[in-house]
């Protein structure tokens, strides 16, 4: 059964009637620009073909109900405040709450979810869920919520209702990406540019490798990185690390007394520049040449930002040894996925090389596939 069919069937099973419609929102990979979003910096994600589908319809009882193929018993709630709905239902209650807080009258609705975005793998199943639900509620209620405002509403659900201190990257990618494009986003102004991302035309491909490494301490470490970045910006007297350029970096590092803060700041400042350099190369159609920037981004995450684990470092190294033009971890870190820029005919051999390296180290086997840039959230 396809994901849309599964969502439709789950709706009928739970609520005994047909859904009024189907809305889909994708997971994403971030090509480059890691942990830069909450530093007011730059990111460059593209949407995955994997997506979360919300089958939805109006609710006669004035409440919101949501179920998932992963949790078939509906979670039912009325008007709530953060903390009142917990567990996975909080992502949905959070969207209702954030939309209400933004001044919109949210239509009571019944929702059933199905997804093929891997959960907890750094491909942003949480933002896919929020964005699918948000888009469904907006359409069902006929709400006038401009596209550029939507990511911040979904982010607020995740930050202030679920309690995960994530930046604007994931929701922006799920809502604003376009098929065949990477999304160049300025996380301060929310200005975007759709960058044509034609890999096949150049004989290239992006291999996504799910490390299947268990996520550990993700929230705590993420929060700690955020705090370090804020401390560094404040010590430097700038609103955010975005305001330090690579040319100013050496002087800035001298001012920071603490070695950990120095390394965290160096990652953010150089990573922002790598995003700009990647965009410039893509504009010129020099896709292959972004490889070294991807690998430099990984080295910076491993050595300066310290958010990688052995499984992702091993995948990057094995992919490079197998001939990848560049490779890096993508997503918040401490596990999750790696992406490798490869010649299109090397997908199988690269995936096999990574799997061999995992077997030698006794790691759980990785899962690899070629990713193309899919569409953003929409009614389907
Ligand atoms: P990621 O966004 O990297 O996949 P997160 O930890 O941010 O990882 O989000 C995963 C959580 O989102 C899950 O633990 C679950 O609570 C919720 N979630 C995502 N997709 C679904 C779904 N289809 N059904 C139920 N819950 C989901
Ligand atoms: Mg998430």
Give me the secondary-structure topology:
Elements: H1 3-15, E1 21-30, E2 42-43, E3 45-58, E4 64-68, E5 71-77, H2 89-101, E6 109-115, H3 125-141, H4 150-162, H5 169-176, E7 181-186, E8 192-196, E9 204-210, H6 218-236, H7 246-255, H8 259-283, H9 291-303, H10 310-321, E10 326-330, E11 337-343, H11 347-361, E12 367-371, E13 378-379
Parallel strand pairs: 4-6
Antiparallel strand pairs: 1-3, 1-13, 2-7, 3-6, 4-5, 7-8, 9-11, 9-12, 10-11
EC number: 2.7.1.6
Pfam families: GalKase_gal_bdg (PF10509), GHMP_kinases_C (PF08544), GHMP_kinases_N (PF00288)
Keywords: ATP-binding, Carbohydrate metabolism, Galactose metabolism, Kinase, Nucleotide-binding, Transferase
Provide key terms for this protein.
380 residues; alpha+beta; Ribosomal Protein S5, domain 2; Alpha-Beta Plaits; 2 domains; six-stranded mixed sheet; 42% helix; 22% strand; binds adenosine-5'-diphosphate; binds magnesium ion; GHMP_knse_ATP-bd_CS; nucleotide-binding; ATP-binding
Can you give a write-up of this model?
The chain has two domains: 3-195, Ribosomal Protein S5, domain 2 (2-Layer Sandwich), CATH 3.30.230.10; 197-371, Alpha-Beta Plaits. Helices cover 42% and strands 22% of the residues. The protein has eleven helices and 13 strands. A six-stranded mixed β-sheet has the order 5-4-6-3-1-13. It has a four-stranded antiparallel β-sheet with strand order 10-11-9-12. Helix 4 (150-162) runs antiparallel to helix 5. The model has no long low-confidence stretch (mean pLDDT 96). Magnesium ion binds at residues 124, 126-127, 170.
